[in-house]
Inverse folding.
């Protein structure tokens, strides 16, 4: 914004600085004339500056921190305009009362601006008054950016720079009207007055108005220096001295941390190496001494279904990390850091790099287990409940004004109660259920004894132990929970009411029908004592059920009864623990009224804080508000809901099911990558998981969302929770698929594309989630019921053994015993799902850049197998490998050659068949030269052998085009070589590919294949020249004349364009037609056109071959003027009339003939001054001509 | 428009579009229907009138469609819009001589056409700009036909007729949109004295060449 702002303000500043004031004798103190307002105003401003000059001169003791600034104040401010003015001037600034233009001043001071002004002043320096006050306070000019009034809006991310490192900072929207009143200067003064009970300081600047942003930024847990780019690294090396003490501090804090954290046994599914167990036991022993609990064995810290988490100690113990000096650690890139971290096999095993990670993660993640288990159970129970109650629902017709009896049944601290059954001795002691006694474990459930200490569900163990040191920690006991839950539901279903399952330990039951049966009414009429009998029956049902559950499970349940779900839920609050409460209609209003708003279901902190702003604290306060006001404050839905809730109204019926809206799979733990291949592979696995879930839910989705958690710029590389995600920036990206799908391949491809487009360096990834929205149910009885039909193709046979290979390979890679993990790792490549977008990773800082192989396939087998390695492999793998190699070795060599060539000539590669060999003429000699001798000979020999080319293709290609097509939808990792992937041509090809790369098209269009078919057909049939049509030989091109060459090239380009656009369902059918077309193109486009016969020549007049009307007129005029005094010659008249006759009959343009005649008439009329005879002669000629035209017309039948 | 796309069908549809507009204009200008029943519209960048009576529009569209069918067969010599007076005597005929449309067989109506001039250069078949300008000019003449014609007959009606080429097959198969009439054999005696022709314009844009004129019957008595 510099120059525009500076220019004028500099002038003003100079003027103000140069302004001196000695005495009141300048001309500005003279009176102004009548009507001389501008003069008056000019003088006024000078006088104001005089005043300022005086003030400035008097305050010589103040530092001139505002020197060089010109300020203007807009609107109400705290401190007031007058105070601020004085402050600014005293501290050396210039002040302008009347703003002639926005550029006059350097800064405009305002507390708030009207929306219009915000827009208007967007590009200027608008600062808060606090800037002045704080600057004076600190004694130097603070950067104004921290005090902006107008920012880029809440969506704009802000980069923070603190302590020389870059941090990410949330852009807080601070424009709230309370800001002025809460954090204002006057308020501050008042508060200070209260606190200190002292008089107001004479210097108002001593009070800070707002918190400086610097304090807000320092929220990270570790002050670990963060260096991200190489430039900063260089900078960091300069102030290495500064870093060292900091790192020591880190070490110290880490040591502290080590005391707190403990090591836990890894999951039983993966036996750790012996040394590790040793480690573990050591720490365990240490732990045991620390633990004061007598029955440690009873509280085994881990159960089978827990996530494989390691403590920070593992990281710190890790030799690899130890070996590296702390300063190097700091200067590594994220990938290097991860690589280092992962070089420890123990850690590696528990991160996403482990191919079995996903399985393990979902098998052992406690949270996942809890949620899925709950969901499964809930679904089961819901099904049972729905089945049971469907019959009753039929008879239960809701009448208007009918009384309802809804029970809300809930277990009292379900997990805790069930777990306690195994430890009856702790029944009355405070107990919690959690997965371990580590400070980081979360409390899943706590009993009422524990609640008395203030322990709550979801609390961290550390906090709970602070509140209640002797708290008992119980392990999870999922089988028992399940059993209890089943019994619980049995009891509920036995009530014969309409049951709606809320969760495993919670259910809603509509028992209205039962109660009405008791009273013998329909629920609307009121008989003598009928209502009372109904209520008694409801209580009775509840009591019976509670007794039954207690008998069956040994646990207490509480029951709330009310006229609707809301009332039942609220009644339950009162019923707990181990009781029941019926909210009778007459009590409802009073009962609800005295509750706090937060007690209402669906009301939490954010809603209640909004309500508090309009003066609502209790539910009865809501009733005093109008519905409109609530809607205005809370939005239409919540507002209306609360309005109804406050009156005890809840229209939701028991048994109404909420439809599932999305299915997702997300992993936020253990996400550490070294390179893109690992990311892609992991994404594939995650998408597989998503597919599994979609299938389980029986749905397909149309919108795919990718959620990526990226390490926040200021977060440490190793978050406090081991391998957790730490502080992250979350990025979301979604795509509309157009066609509902649950196909792993499709999803994976899109997800990888999205991931690429986010362009996040793999080392920074901390969590990835994929979510499918806009779900369509899969209709039963149809195989593939997408919204769009798809062609069915047979799956290629060759896939199966490859899959097996893949699995075995993966297994060997995941084998923890194997020391050299790198070797199998190298071989792993992206399996499939080339993104349809060509994504370039532009991150010069990452070392993975070289390794990045966006077009790679998963298992590129080495062309040269080390016999030693081969010998080490298990028998079956070796056999397969050997078989594969012998068959593929030759092609492999060529593939490599070819792909290299493609790399050098990306434009050409477009026309390439994935697996076909190029023409010999296309081989780049330089590349050929650079090849090793034997390979070169091999390549050239291949061209020499007559069947060579064909063989090469046949070996790789299934014979029929149909089979060929299946390649794209199935995985054939081996077939796709580096750079030779199915979508390679697309991915690498020109830009216009990108905009058509929607799902369907990518799916249907196998362009390179089609091309190949074409090529293939060409070579197998007679006309060999046609086979080359797609990929025109450059020599052939060169031989063509220039214009032909242009034409051929243009044709090719067009064909390419046509191919890349649109869904092509009948490639193999079209290929013939295309060939035909090609033929045309070669010969020229004439054949297809209907060449029109040449038109008969127009009749022309005179030797000048005139035919245009204007020319004719000219000729006629010239003719007339030439012979105006002697009359026309007969020949000329004849010639003209013959011509006009031709015009009418042959040219068929009467109007032209008529126009010529009319023009002649005109001429005669105009120049009628000549002698009678001549005039006569002309008129005769004219008549003659007219007559001829008439005759001509008659000839045409007019 | 790319030249290679121009087919005979497109050429014909250009003409029939024009014919539709022309019929509407004639109906308006000759007072066949109340002038208030016409909308002002814009075609060929020229203010034209369009009947807003759905039945009239339907009739015209049907008639033009029938004309188009015959045109595609290449049988038509002239298209005529005939205006009758109250006594169902034809008073005016608006004629469009389409005999100079390129001779294209019915099988080739969708084949792209091409024409080369004497120098071998390709000339456009349907120069759209030209066509529009020429149509505009024709339309302007047609809209001003009232200046050369006698006052419009009151209570008249109209029809559309085609005159076939000598070798043209009459469209008399079922369904039969056309009604055959006896040709007037002695052109000279029958017509000469009784009618007067007012040329409108000859359109020649690319291969879309036709001439239009108005024939007006002389006062019979």
């Amino acid at each position: 914004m510099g120059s525009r702002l500076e220019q004028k303000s500099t002038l003003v500043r100079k003027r103000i600085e140069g302004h001196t004031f000695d005495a009141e004798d300048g001309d500005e103190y003279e009176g102004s004339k009548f009507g001389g307002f501008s003069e008056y105003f000019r003088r006024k401003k000078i006088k104001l500056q005089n005043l300022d000059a005086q003030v400035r001169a008097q305050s010589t003791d103040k530092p001139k921190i505002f020197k060089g600034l010109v300020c203007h104040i807009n609107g109400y401010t705290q401190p007031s305009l007058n105070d601020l003015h004085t402050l600014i001037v005293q501290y050396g600034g210039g002040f302008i009362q009347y703003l002639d233009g926005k550029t006059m001043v350097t800064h405009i001071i305002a507390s708030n601006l009207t929306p219009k002004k915000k827009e208007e002043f967007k590009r200027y320096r608008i600062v808060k008054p606090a800037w002045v006050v704080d600057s004076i306070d600190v004694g130097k000019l603070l950067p104004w950016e921290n005090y902006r009034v107008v920012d880029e809006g809440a969506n704009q991310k802000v980069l923070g720079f603190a302590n020389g490192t870059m941090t990410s900072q949330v852009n807080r929207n601070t424009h709230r009207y309370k800001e002025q009143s809460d954090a204002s200067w006057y308020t501050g003064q008042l508060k200070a007055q209260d606190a200190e009970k002292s008089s107001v300081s004479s210097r108002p600047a001593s009070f800070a108005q707002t918190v400086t942003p610097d304090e807000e930024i320092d929220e990270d847990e570790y002050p670990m220096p963060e260096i991200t780019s190489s430039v900063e690294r260089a900078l960091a090396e300069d102030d290495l001295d500064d870093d060292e003490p900091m790192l020591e501090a880190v070490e110290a804090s880490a040591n502290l941390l080590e005391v707190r954290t403990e090591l836990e046994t890894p999951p039983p599914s993966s036996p750790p190496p012996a040394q590790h167990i040793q480690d573990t036991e050591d720490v365990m022993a240490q732990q045991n001494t620390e633990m004061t609990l007598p029955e440690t064995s009873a509280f085994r810290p881990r159960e089978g279904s827990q996530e494989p988490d390691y403590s920070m100690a593992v990281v710190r113990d890790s030799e690899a990390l130890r070996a590296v000096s702390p300063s190097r650690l700091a200067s590594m890139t994220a990938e290097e850091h991860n690589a280092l971290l992962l070089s420890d096999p123990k850690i590696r095993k528990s991160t996403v790099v482990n191919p079995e990670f996903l399985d393990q993660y979902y098998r052992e993640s406690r949270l996942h287990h809890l949620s899925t288990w709950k969901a499964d159970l809930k679904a089961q129970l819901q099904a049972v409940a729905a089945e049971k109650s469907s019959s009753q629902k039929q008879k239960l017709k809701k009448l208007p004004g009918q009384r309802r009896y809804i029970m809300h049944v809930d277990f009292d601290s379900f997990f805790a109660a069930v777990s306690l059954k195994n430890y009856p001795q702790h029944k009355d002691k405070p107990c919690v259920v959690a997965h371990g006694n580590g400070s980081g474990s979360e409390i899943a459930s706590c009993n009422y004894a524990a609640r008395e200490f203030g322990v709550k569900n979801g609390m961290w163990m550390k906090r709970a132990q602070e509140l209640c040191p002797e708290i008992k920690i119980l392990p999870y006991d999922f089988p028992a929970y399940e059993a209890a839950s089943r019994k619980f539901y049995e009891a509920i279903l036995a009530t014969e009411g309409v049951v709606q399952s809320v969760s495993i330990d919670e259910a809603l039951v509509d028992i209205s029908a039962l109660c009405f049966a008791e009273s013998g009414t329909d629920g609307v009429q009121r008989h003598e004592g009928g209502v009372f009998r109904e209520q008694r029956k409801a209580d009775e049902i509840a009591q019976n059920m509670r007794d039954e559950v207690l008998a069956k499970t040994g646990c207490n349940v509480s029951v709330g009864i009310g006229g609707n779900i809301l009332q039942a839920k609220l009644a339950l609050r009162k019923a707990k623990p181990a009781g029941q409460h019926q909210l009778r209609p007459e009590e409802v209003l009073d009962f609800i009224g005295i509750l706090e708003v937060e007690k209402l279901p669906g009301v939490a902190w954010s809603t209640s804080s909004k309500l508090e702003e309009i003066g609502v604290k209790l539910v009865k306060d809501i009733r005093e508000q109008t519905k409109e006001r609530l809607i205005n404050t809370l939005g239409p839905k919540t507002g209306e809901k609360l309005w109804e809730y406050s009156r005890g109204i809840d229209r939701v019926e028991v048994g109404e099911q909420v439809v599932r809206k999305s299915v997702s799979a997300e992993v936020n733990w253990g996400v550490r990558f070294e390179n893109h291949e690992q990311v892609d592979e992991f994404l594939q696995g995650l998408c597989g998981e998503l597919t599994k879930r979609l299938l389980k839910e029986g749905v397909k989705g149309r919108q795919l969302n990718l959620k990526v958690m990226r390490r926040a710029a200021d977060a440490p590389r190793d978050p406090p929770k081991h391998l957790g995600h730490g502080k992250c920036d979350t990025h979301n990206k979604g795509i509309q698929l157009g066609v509902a799908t649950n196909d792993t391949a499709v999803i994976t491809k899109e997800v990888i594309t999205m991931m690429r487009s986010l362009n996040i360096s793999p080392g920074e990834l901390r969590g990835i989630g994929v979510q499918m929205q806009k779900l369509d149910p899969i209709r039963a009885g149809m195989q593939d019921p997408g919204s769009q039909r798809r062609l069915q193709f047979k799956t290629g046979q060759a896939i199966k053994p490859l899959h097996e290979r893949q699995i075995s390979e993966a297994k060997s890679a995941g084998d923890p015993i194997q020391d050299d993990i790198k070797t199998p790792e190298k071989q792993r490549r992206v399996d499939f799902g080339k993104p349809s977008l060509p994504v370039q990773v532009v991150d010069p800082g990452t070392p993975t850049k070289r390794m990045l192989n966006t077009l790679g396939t998963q298992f590129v087998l080495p062309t040269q197998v080390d016999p030693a390695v081969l010998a080490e492999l298990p028998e079956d793998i070796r056999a397969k490998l050997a078989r594969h190699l012998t068959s593929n070795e030759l092609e492999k060599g060529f593939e490599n050659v070819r792909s290299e060539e493609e790399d050098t000539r990306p434009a050409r590669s477009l026309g390439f068949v994935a697996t076909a060999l190029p023409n010999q003429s296309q081989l780049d000699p330089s590349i050929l030269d650079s090849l090793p001798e034997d390979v070169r000979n091999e390549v050239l020999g291949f061209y020499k052998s007559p069947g060579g080319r064909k063989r090469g293709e046949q070996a790789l290609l299934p014979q029929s085009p149909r089979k060929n097509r299946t390649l794209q939808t199935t995985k054939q990792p081996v077939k796709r070589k580096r750079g030779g992937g199915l979508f390679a041509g697309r991915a690498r090809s020109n830009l216009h590919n990108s905009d058509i790369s929607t799902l369907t098209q990518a799916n249907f269009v196998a362009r390179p294949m089609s091309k190949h078919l074409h090529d293939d057909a060409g070579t197998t049939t007679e006309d060999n020249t046609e086979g080359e049509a797609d990929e025109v030989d450059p020599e052939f091109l060169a031989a063509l004349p220039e214009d032909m060459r242009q034409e051929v090239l243009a044709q090719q380009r067009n064909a390419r364009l046509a191919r890349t656009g649109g869904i092509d369902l009948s490639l193999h059918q079209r290929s013939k037609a295309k060939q035909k077309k090609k033929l045309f193109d070669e010969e020229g486009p004439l054949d297809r056109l209907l060449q029109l016969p040449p038109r008969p020549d127009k009749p022309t007049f005179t030797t000048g071959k005139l035919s245009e009307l204007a020319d004719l007129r000219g000729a006629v005029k010239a003719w007339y003027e030439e012979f105006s005094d002697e009359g026309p010659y007969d020949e000329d008249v004849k010639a003209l009339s013959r011509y006009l006759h031709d015009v009418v009959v042959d040219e068929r343009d009467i109007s032209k003939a008529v126009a010529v005649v009319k023009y002649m008439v005109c001429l005669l009329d105009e120049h009628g001054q000549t002698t009678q005879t001549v005039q006569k002669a002309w008129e005769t000629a004219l008549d003659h001509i007219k007559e001829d035209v008439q005759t001509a017309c008659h000839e045409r039948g007019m | 428009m790319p030249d290679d796309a121009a087919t005979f069908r497109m050429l014909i549809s250009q003409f029939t579009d024009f014919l539709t507009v022309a019929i509407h204009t004639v109906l308006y200008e000759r007072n066949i229907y109340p002038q208030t029943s016409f909308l002002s519209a814009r075609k060929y960048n020229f203010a034209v009138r369009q009947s807003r009576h759905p039945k009239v529009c339907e009739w015209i569209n049907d008639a033009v469609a029938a004309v188009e069918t015959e045109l595609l067969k290449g049988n038509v010599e002239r298209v005529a819009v005939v205006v009758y007076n109250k006594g169902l005597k034809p008073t005016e005929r608006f004629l469009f001589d389409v005999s100079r449309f390129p001779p294209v067989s019915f099988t080739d109506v969708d084949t792209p056409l091409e024409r080369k001039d004497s120098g071998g250069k390709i000339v456009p078949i349907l120069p759209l700009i030209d066509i529009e300008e020429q149509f505009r000019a024709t339309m302007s003449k047609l809209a001003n036909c009232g200046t050369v014609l006698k006052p419009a007959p009151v209570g008249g009606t109209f029809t559309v007729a085609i005159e076939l080429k000598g070798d043209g097959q009459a469209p008399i198969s079922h369904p039969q949109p056309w009604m055959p009439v006896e040709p007037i054999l002695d052109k000279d005696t029958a017509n000469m004295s009784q009618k007067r022709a007012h040329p409108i314009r000859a359109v020649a844009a690319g291969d879309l060449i036709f001439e239009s004129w108005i024939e007006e019957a002389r006062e019979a008595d």
Q: What stands out?
A: The radius of gyration of chain B is 18 Å. The longest helix of chain B spans residues 8-29. Chain B has one domain: 3-217. The CA atoms of residues 143 and 221 of chain B lie 28 Å apart.
